[in-house]
Amino acid sequence: MRVAYYKGCLASLSAKELDVATKALAPKLGLELDELESVTCCGAGDIHEAEPDYYLHLNARILAYAERTGADTLMTICNVCTLNLRQADLELKHDEALRERVNANLAEVGVPRYTGGVDVKHFLWLVAEGEGYERLKECAHKGLKGLRIAPFYGCQILRPSKLLGFEDPDRPWSLEAIIEACGGEAVDYPAKVKCCGFPIIQAREEVALGELIQPIEQALDAGADAMVTPCPLCHLSLDAWQQKLEAQTGRSFRLPIFHLSQLIGVAAGLEESELRFKRHVVSMQPVLEKLESV
Amino acid sequence: VQVALKIWRFDPESGERALKRYEVEAPEWACLLDVLDIVKDEVDGTLAFRKSCRMMICGSCGMRMDGRAILACKEPMKPIVDAGHEPVISAMGNMPVLKDLVVDMSPFWSKIRAMKPWVDTGYEELPEKESIVSQERMNPIHKEALCIMCGCCVSECNSMESDPEFFGPAALAKGFRFVGDPRDRATIERLEAYNVEHGIWDCTRCYFCNERCPKGVDPRDAIAKLGAESVRHGIDRDMGAKHAKWFVHSAKTTGWLRETELVPKTQGVISAVKEAKFALSLAKRGKVPPPFPPHVARDVGEARRLYELVKQQGRDGAAGIVQGEKALSRLEHGNENED
User: Fold this and answer.
1) What is the DSSP string of B113-135?
2) C-alpha distance from A197 to closest chain B C-alpha (Å)
3) ipTM of predicted assembly, 2 dp
4) What are the CB-based long-range contacts (under 8 Å, 24+) for B19-23?
5) Is the bond preceding residue A286 a cis peptide, omega within 30 degrees?
6) Which residues of B touch A97 (CB under 8 A)?
7) The pTM is what?
8) Whether A236 contacts chain B with CB within 8 A
9) A111 vs A214, B252, B338, CA distance in Å?
10) pLDDT value at position B187?
11) Which of the two ends of chain B, N or C, has the fewest CB atoms closer than 10 A to its terminal CB?
């Protein structure tokens, strides 16, 4: 399956390992990635909040370039990109006057026309069912045997379900299905669908840390060896800010955090050069050693 | 039908909390509120819950079913019974439980009151003629005006769990209902009052409020509208606003987020220096991409010119937030071809 691939900001910058792992893994899952080059940041929740009309145009532009690849799916690897693009797409699809105004503006600066021709789908959704899931079972079979993995969904891949709608936002199953297809054991805990605090981690660090501690603490209490998340923003907060929780509470958590592509990559036998665990703040060694020893 | 459910009971006198199972005979059309009435009438008269209108207008019967905040009068029981499920009913979150399913909503009301939930017309004496506002000018606050103050959004607010003083989704949606009202003359005062420590920039964008609201108010969208109005009026001293504006600046200069500069641009240079040790721990892992040379997106000139065009068209502030509102109401009602 050929898909247009939008990696977003973090996978181009501080979470490069996510982009590298996704590109290395894609062929094994039958995904041919057509990477978008002439695109910008989706604006996160920030441009949407500061300059909403600009947010809409930036996302329309990304969607228009995705259409030009001829693929019918635009694959994302970030929760926030997924929500932003799907939100803009739905609004443009259903409001003709708005679509005409945006298209006139796109034409003025030389961007192809938006016609609503691509479906925005997160990588997680492409792997959790259908052909992707069948390929996953073949390539990653039993690769995580002996590991207890805590799935962490994050917010903007589940809510608002009116805009996302892949699965029940209160009883999601996709990450668990993937962990189990790879032979691991999915650990259950209440905060797996809650917020990691990342959007306000700079403006309101204390409030954000009060949110971040919940999944970390609960996953460890439930006996997780590691956690996996489909969102690079959640990853940054769970991985890089974990040390701040440790300083704040005086406790040692050291919970290794996988990007989804890395977790499947390990199960599918990718090399360190394709996974780049060295770029994580919390060491991945304990969980990788446990996997070796099983 | 035979309905079975479990209810988290709380007795304030003994402090005892217990999950109790009830099984009653109820009509096929019964909603959760009807079933609670039957339990109270026939099984245990001490069961406490709030109710009034029974038709999703009064907002009294907010509670949780299987951990989700709902209105008891909006949940039909037959599909649950048919699925062989026994739901667990409990009190709403983020508010202290007084008894069984009744929570103390006084913090909720004081936050609503702090929003000055009335139109400030700016005149003291009534004018001779009534002032008429067109439907069109009221449409921008249509969703926020639907709020019945049931507390379902507040129950699940992730930021409020961490900061109980956060104004929260219900109060802020109420705030936008007046900021966006064309008759109100207190816009700046209101926005100033929301741009404070526990105000709009506390929202962590978890979207639980939009997910739970039984009336389609979408409080998170209302908070985004307040942010957009604040930026439009130049009320942007909060770190949250600075953070948001840096994304705009990044998009129109390099296209991609200028991640490393985000910290000093949000928190100021002094705070960024204080964070040097933390930053260094991230830098060692390649998580602090060097700002020079900048990572520039191909054809970023297009994004720059789009910004100029958009600014000329003047849909600044909340007017630019379309957010699927029309689209979604059409989808929900299945009348895509209308209007």
Assistant:
1) HHT--S---S-SSPPSSPP---H
2) 6
3) 0.96
4) B19/B88, B21/B86
5) no
6) none
7) 0.95
8) yes
9) 44, 15, 31
10) 97
11) C
